[in-house]
Amino acid sequence: MSTAVQVRKEELIYELNNLGVYSTEDGRQLTEVSLYTLEWTNVTEQNKAARAYVDQH
Predict the structure, then answer these.
(1) Torsion angle, alpha carbons of 38, 41, 42, 43, to 10
(2) What tens digit of pLDDT does each residue of 10-30 get?
């Protein structure tokens, strides 16, 4: 695996963990999935967090 891909995966896992996400919606561990799946999961969770913020304010 490319070093850049591995670095990006680690960044996304860190960001998702900070959001309280430790697995994908289908139950797979973040360390087991592809970069694409991590990117998609991150976008989904960021959107959820933004919506929750807007609903609170």
Answers:
(1) 130
(2) 999 999 999 999 999 999 999
